[in-house]
Structure formats: C-alpha cells, structure tokens
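Notes to self, Glyoxalase-like protein:
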Amino acid sequence: MIEPRLDHLVHAGPDLDALVAEFTERTGVAPVLGGRHVGRGTRNHLVGLGGNAYLELIGPDDPAVRPLPEVFGIDRLTASRLAAWVVRPDDLDATVQRARDGGYDPGDIAALSRRTPDGRLLEWRLTPNRGDRFGGLAPALIDWQDARHPTADGLPQLRLVSLVGRHPDPPAVESALAALDVQLDVTTGPPGLEAVLDTPHGRITL
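result:
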C-alpha cells in the first residue's frame, strides 16, 4: 500500500542535468524545471505521480562548484539514488510532537524556499534531512503553508505503482514509522527505497 499522504519522492544525483537526461530517455517523459533552492546550492526537476504526489529529481545547481551540497547526501553520491520520501501530515507540529512522544525524533522543523522559473518564491516547512532516517526509509514531513503545491502546475505524469523499503532491521524502521503514523512495507535487505513506475516505455524501478 502507498501512504495516502505521500507528498513526493526524492531522486538525488551528483549531476542533475545528466540525471534528468537519463530519466527522460528511460521513461519517455521529460521532467520540468521546478527551480532553485534558495541558499542551498541545489536545483530540481519535477514529474507528477498522480493526485497530489510527485517525483523530485534533485542535484547541484552547478556540479562544478565544490563542495557539492550535503542535502540528501549529494556530496557523497557517485550515482543517482532514490534518497527520500516526504509525507504531508494534516498538522506538522502535532505530528512531530506525537512522534517524539512515541520514541522517534524526526528533527526540528526548518523553513525552506525555492524560486520557480517564473520568479515566484515558494516557501514551506520541512523536518530536516539529517539524523537517523534509516537510509531514507523514515520520511521527512512537510507543510506547504500557503504555497501553491507543485502538482497544481500541470506536471507531466507517470503512475506510481508501488513504494517499498528494505533495511537490515525492519522492526526498528517500523517503530519509527508507527511513531510518525505512516505506512511503508519494509523487508530485510540493504537500506534503501524502491519505487516502481508505469511509463510510456514500460514499467521501471527506481
């Protein structure tokens, strides 16, 4: 089952232009430019996954600039990977507090922003991409506040068929997921997320 409050998946790479070109060739769908993250050195491209969910391809705004951004471990990547997933709870602050009461700390909420290609500034709040995320299996939490959601801009579409996780210690991950009140099927294996997408070129796995 796919978590119904899924906001987006994060596919990160050390060279965003190369990642977008590879993704376009593989799927037959070209992600559109989302914009630049203010003060973070990253840029993203987006493709819809149906409903209010989307896939974010993220990487350095300029891959020649060193050091590379630390966000989503981009500075340590040698190849692209499905690095994270993000859930949009009804009440971000209450969800963070309940998770802490349940034994898992998702981190302090931070204010972030992105400048769109047409000059609009999108501002939102997000739990940070650091601390123990179990290899990306524990999701970040987002509150878009009054910002226009990216899926409202007519993104090109693919269909998300499934999202699952693997980890050497599934019960530890499941405890964190329960504290966050989110759903993800987790099996034993090397830590990581796996998403299956239906595309014009057939079904693919990220």
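- Residues 16-27 form the longest helix (12 residues).
- The chain has a mean pLDDT of 92.
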